[in-house]
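@channel anyone free to eyeball this complex?
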Amino acid sequence: MSTTTPTESKELAPVSAESLAALLIAKERPPRPSALSASLTFGWRAILKIKHVPEQLFDVTAFPIMMVLMYTYLFGGALAGSPSEYIQFLLPGILVMSVVMITMYTGVSVNTDIEKGVFDRFRSLPIWRPSTMVGYLLGDALRYTIASVVMLTVGLILGYRPDGGIVGVLAGIALLVVFSFAFSWIWTMFGLMLRTEKSVMGVSMMVIFPLTFLSNVFVDPKTMPGWLQAFVNNSPITHLASAVRELMAGDWPTAEIAWSLGWSALFVLVFGPITMRLYNRK
Amino acid sequence: MSGQTSGLAIETAGLVKTFGETRAVDGVDLSVPTGTVYGVLGPNGAGKTTTVKMLATLLRPDGGEAHVFGHDVVREADEVRSRVSLTGQYASVDEDLTGTENLVLLGRLLGHDKKAARRRGELLLEAFGLTEAAGKQVKHYSGGMRRRIDIAASILNTPDLLFLDEPTTGLDPRSRNQVWDIVRAVVAQGTTVLLTTQYLDEADQLASRIAVIDRGKVIAEGTKGELKASVGAGSVHLRLRDAAQRPQAEEVLRLALDADVQREPDPVALTARVGGGAANGQGAAEQAARALAELARGGIVVDNFSLGQPSLDEVFLALTGHDTRTQAPQDTQGDDTERHGTKDEAAA
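replying in thread with the prediction:
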C-alpha cells in the first residue's frame, strides 16, 4: 500500500457531483435475486478469489500428488505385492481421503473471511441468507473437482486403469464432490464457532485424521480387531470410498451410494442450520 | 412507502444491547426525520456502531424496539434490508476483488442482471473518480479510495436510508472533504443519512440534527443550534507570557465572558467556552475580542490566542461532567465482544 499512496493523491480524480446525482435519481429497484442466483453469485466471488490468489490452489494440486505418490510407493510393495497392483485398490480411496481432507480449509477461510467488513454488507442485503455460505461451498466444489482431476491424472500415469471407463470415473468424482460439499458444512460451523484460525485448524485435524484413516481407504477392514471393524464399517468415509471404488471399477453399488448420499443429507440437515444460526448471530 | 407518511426514517424506543456484563447500548431513543443527515456523535465505545448494527439488522436488540420506515428491524428484517445500505467503519467491500468486481458482485446480489450490474458499476466508478483504479484489487487502494468504493457500493441501488459509520475516521483532511461532498450529494437526492462520528465539526458540517451518545445512552439531542447553546459555540485558548498573571487573567476572563474558565496543565494556559447559554452560539468572536481587550487593559500580556470550536472532549465535559478518556476501561470490555471494533481501534 505504501507504494500506491503517494501516487494516488495526485491521480485521484475528483468526485463528479452531477453524474453522482444523475445516478442517484434512478430509484427503481430490480426484484431480489432467487436463492440459486444469489448462491451462484457468491460462487463467482469464490472463483474470482482463486483467480486473484492462484497460490491457494496449492493445497488441491501439490498435496494430492504427494498423497498418491507417497502411499502408492510406501505401502504398495508390502500390501499388494507391487505399487502398480496396489494403486488399483488405493487410488479411489486416496482420492476420497485427500479431497475430504481438503474440505477442512473451508473452515479456515470462513473464519478469516467472516471477520472482514464485507460480511456485514452481505448480511445487510435482502437475499436468501444461506447463499453466502452455499456460494463458498460451490467455489470449494470447484477446488475438489480440480483436486480429483489432478489425482486421477497422476494415478493414470502410475498405472491405474479404471474398468468403469469415463462414465464410471465421472460418476465417482460426482459422488465425491457432492459428499464433500455436504461434509463441508461441519467446517463452516467450526469456522463460525471458533475464535481463531488456529483453533479451527486444530479441531479440524482432530476430526479429519481419525475419520479418514479409520476407514477402508488403505486396507480391507477384515484384518482389524472387531471393535475397530464396527467403527470402520459404519464410517461415512468407508461407505464413500467403497462407492467411489466400485463406481470407478464399473459396478453400481446401490447400497453404498445410498449410504453416501444419506450421510450427505444428514450433514447438510444437521450442520447447515447450525451454521446459519451462528451466521445470523455473528 | 408507509413510513414516509409519518416522516420518520428511524424510530427507536428504549433500544438495548448487552454484551455479557456490558450494556453497550442502554435505552436509546432516536427519531430521525426522512431526507436529512442525522449525526450520532460520541467517543469510541459509546455504542454508536452497536446501535447502527441493530438498525441495519446485523444485531438483534436485547430490549426495546426499532423501526426503519415503519418496519420492525427484527420481525420485518427483509423489508428493512431492501431499503437501507450500510457503510461500516472498516471497508465493507471485498479487498481481494477489484473495484469493478465488487460493484458487479453487489449489483448481482441486488438483483441486477450481469449487464445492468456492470453498467451501473462503471458509471459509479466514473462518478467517484475511480475509473483508473477499477481493475485494481481494493487492498491496493488508499484510504480515500476505499471510502469512495465503499460508499459507491452502498448506493448501487439508491437506498432510502444510508448508514455511514465513522466514514472519515483515519482520512486526511482532503479525502475527508471529498467524503463530505459525497454525503451532501447523496442527501440532496432524498436519501436519509445516519452518520456516526467522533468529530464535532463533521456533525456540524453535515448533520441537521445531532444526538450525543455516551456509555450507551443519548445524553443530548437536538438541532445544531440547540446543542451549541448548551455547550458553547467555541473555546478560547490563550497562553500568557507570565504564569504569575494567571489568577488575574482568569478573573478578567470570567467577568468578560460570563463563563467558567479552566486552568490547563500548562501553567501559562487558560481555556474558556464562549457563545454558550443565552448567546445561543452567536457572537463568539465579538465576545472573545472584548475579553482580549479587557486583558490588555489590565496589563496582562497574551502571547498566543486562538478561538476554536469546542472539541469533543469539551462537549463531553460540558454534557457529562467527565471527559472521554474516563471511558477507556469500558471500551476495552465492549470491544472484546465486538470483534470488529477491536481491530479497527488498533488500526486507528
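from a first look: The domain at 233-309 of chain B is CATH 3.30.70 (Alpha-Beta Plaits).
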